[in-house]
Amino acid sequence: MKGLSESLFNQKLRFKNENGEYFPDWRLGKLGQVFTFKVTNSYSRDKLNYHEGYVKNIHYGDIHTKYGTLLNLQNESTPYINSDVNISKIEEENYCKIGDLIVADASEDLKDVGKSIEVVNLNGQKVLAGLHTILARPLHNIFSIGFCGYLFKSEKIRQQIQKEAQGSKVLSISTTRLSNVLLEIPALEEQTKIALSLSVLSDKIDTEKNILKKYKRQRVYLLKKLFI
């Protein structure tokens, strides 16, 4: 997965259009030129639950430990904001939309600072970005859905984010410093092909991992039976 991803984002491997020609050269742009930042909340874990509610909330800890590259709420267990929390003053534009990037702005480890996920399916839910997150929304018609999730996992982007991070014991990154990150942006059609190829490979890897886990459980069960 990492090998294919780096080959694509380093442009060692390029896709061609239906005429067999390479897509146009990738253009450069700073993150702050192609994204806007929306307001997030600071609700702690004790303000969240997994049983009932009307609005879900993305906690930075789940970005670090739980979610994959692309956030599909049809397949993820995501907590609700408790019903006694007043969220009436939150403006509609600050709710997550398809294509949004949610960035964890704090980490104890350099390798995880600025770790991000892209929202690809809200499953009809209302969702907010929560504690220690940055909600970055791409400008219209700049990115294909799913592309940014993988782009922000690439070494080129990760290294820039790590350089922009500040702090000693706990590292953090601000919207100002995140805006400095330089992006290489391919044509939309090439973005779609990149996102699709990486998504298909990721799904296959996940399937194989699940099969392996199943075999391991069966092995443990059979070994127990042998010694009863």
From TrEMBL:
One of its GO terms (molecular function) is endonuclease activity. Keywords: DNA-binding, Endonuclease, Hydrolase, Nuclease, Restriction system. One of its GO terms (biological process) is DNA restriction-modification system. Residues 25-214 form the Type I restriction modification DNA specificity domain. It comes from the Bacteria. Pfam families: Methylase_S. Belongs to the type-I restriction system S methylase family. This is Restriction endonuclease subunit S. It comes from Flavipsychrobacter stenotrophus.
